Amino acid sequence: MQAGSGFTVSGVPTGSRLPDLGRQNLDDAQRAVYSAITGGPRGGVPTGPGGSLHGPFNAMLHAPWVGAELQELGAALRTRGRLPARARELAVLAVAAHHRSGFEWWAHARIAADAGVPDALVDAARSGTGPLPDDPVERAALVATRELLDTGDLDDDAWAAAHDVLGDAGLVELTTLVGYYGLLALQMRVFRVSVPDGEADPWA
After folding, report:
1. Does residue 135 sit within a domain?
2. Of 84, 91, 82, 55, nearest to 70 (Cα)?
3. What angle separates helix 156-190 from helix 136-151, to the nearest 10 degrees?
4. Quick one: which of 69, 93, 124, 152 could link to 130 by a disulfide (CB 3.0–4.6 Å)?
């Protein structure tokens, strides 16, 4: 999960179950994860006072032996994946809406806008209804993601429809993406990570 091309969260909300870890409070393993997150190819990530990381990234610092691999998977999906940016972000928004993950929606609605996703498709990803994309890859990714979220599977018809457009590699990437962002949504729910202060949570 990335939050655009670099910005600072002016008011990190209180109430998280994990304390914020600022740059000065990190051990060597945590510093390596911090550097990979903030200096890697993913672009800017939300930061708070003292350089603490907001969203899912603070949790990665608390368990760097897991967080290092988790952030690398996210960077791979975001920067080295083969799905076009608009298709990827529509799928992420569908995951965020399914899990009612305020931070995930807040961050990726902005990324989707930067990628040129029309407002009508963003709204459709949130509601689960409304127009589907005209682009066949975007449509296949969104429809397959909804099926995965609704049923936990792709039946033969859904598989065939998605496979005709995305192929084997595309479906491996898409199912990985759905699982990854679902995992982040779960962690942020458990750790009580909310949107930054002053921002609206669509499910509050």
Report:
1. yes
2. 55
3. 70
4. 124
Structure tokens at 162: 């998605």
- 61 vs 17, 31, 42, 56, 127, CA distance in Å? 14, 8, 17, 9, 33
At 183-194, the pLDDT tens digits run 999 999 999 998
pLDDT one-digit tens code per residue, 32-54: 999 999 986 666 677 887 889 98
Is the pTM higher than 0.85? The answer reads: yes
Q: How many helices (H) and strands (E) does the chain have?
A: 8, 0
Across the chain, which distance is largest between two alpha carbons, in Å?
53
Distance CA 22, CA 24 (A): 5
Q: Is residue 198 part of a domain?
A: no
Whether 58 is covered by a domain: the verdict is no
CATH of the domain at 155: 1.20.1290.10
Specify if 14 maps to a domain: no
Structure tokens at 167: 């192929």
3-class secondary-structure state, position 8: strand
The structural domain count of the chain equals 1
